[in-house]
Structures are given as structure tokens and as C-alpha cells.
Design a protein that fits this description.
- The protein is rod-shaped, with a radius of gyration of 31 Å.
- It folds into two domains: 35 residues; 108 residues, DNA polymerase, domain 1, CATH 1.10.150.320.
- It starts with 6 loop residues before the first helix and ends with a strand.
- It has 158 residues and is mainly alpha-helical.
- Helices cover 48% and strands 3% of the residues.
Length: 158
């Protein structure tokens, strides 16, 4: 009876088969190592905690619902119309005037703008007399081109 696990009995004298078997085993080992390495090295994709907090912060919605805290920031000159959707689940969209909004309003209403950046925006505005265009925001320390692109749907320079 031939033992199927007896390598010498099956492959004796056949060098070509012996080489193929070695290559197959080596290939299997390499694939296993690469698969394990990719599982260990690849980071799990998770959203940035700060971004989630800023986008879903309930206090921001309270500010929007009250209206009093953002009255000066939302279209003070009536240049833009804001269409509303009725219903409790309707999203609220605002355009914030970076020339009139307070630091608190900038902090609470704009994604990526915290207390520090909001203060810098107000300080820059006071020193220069205001923003002529939204693009001038990149002159404020900490506001990159990337952040400006994220803010474009929320801001204008009135």
C-alpha cells in the first residue's frame, strides 16, 4: 500500500515534480505571510472623532432653531434666500457672512472652525476692515485651501 503522505514514495526520481512541489509550498507560505501582514498593517478606517462631533453637535442645531444667536450672521442684507423644507427632519442650511458673524457663531456654525480659528477670523477682520472675498480667509493663520473649500457652501463675504 502506498502512503499518500509519504513524499519519497510518490516523488522518488522525479526532479521536475519535486521542484514544482517546493515552489507550490513556498508560494503558499509567501501568500499567507502577505495576507497576514496586510491584515496587521492596514489601519481600520474610522472617521475623525472631532469631525463627527462638529457635524452632529446638537448645540449647533439649537443655535439654528433659536435664530437669535445667528441673526446677524445669516444674510443681514437680504442678498440670499434660504429655502426651507417643512417637517422636523428637514435640514437647515445657512450662509454665514464672515464680515458680520461673531466668533461664537463662526465656531458653532462652520465645520472645521473651532474657538481658536474663529477668534483669528474676527481679529483679522477687525485689523483689515473686513473680507472683500471669501478667498481672503486663507490669509488667516490655520485656514488652508482645503478647509476653505469645505467652507465655501456655508460662507460669503457681505
Amino acid at each position: 500500500m502506498i502512503d499518500l503522505l509519504d513524499y519519497e514514495t510518490i516523488y522518488s526520481g522525479d526532479n521536475a515534480m519535486d521542484e514544482r512541489y517546493k515552489k507550490l509550498v513556498i508560494t503558499g507560505i509567501i501568500c499567507s505571510v502577505l495576507l497576514l501582514a496586510s491584515m496587521v498593517v492596514t489601519p481600520k478606517l474610522q472617521p475623525e472623532p472631532d469631525r463627527l462631533y462638529r457635524e452632529y453637535d446638537p448645540s449647533r442645531m439649537e443655535l439654528l432653531d433659536s435664530g437669535a444667536a445667528v441673526e446677524a450672521a445669516i444674510d443681514p442684507e437680504g442678498k440670499y434666500s434660504i429655502n426651507s423644507i417643512s417637517g422636523s427632519d428637514a435640514p437647515t442650511y445657512v450662509m454665514v457672512d464672515i464680515n458680520h458673524a461673531t466668533a461664537e457663531q463662526l465656531d458653532h456654525l462652520l465645520p472645521g472652525i473651532g474657538e481658536t480659528l474663529a477668534g483669528r477670523i474676527v481679529e483679522y477682520r477687525e485689523i483689515t476692515g473686513g473680507f472683500n472675498t471669501v478667498d481672503e480667509l486663507t490669509e488667516v493663520k490655520g485656514i488652508s485651501d482645503r478647509l476653505l473649500e469645505e467652507l465655501r457652501g456655508y460662507i460669503y463675504a457681505g
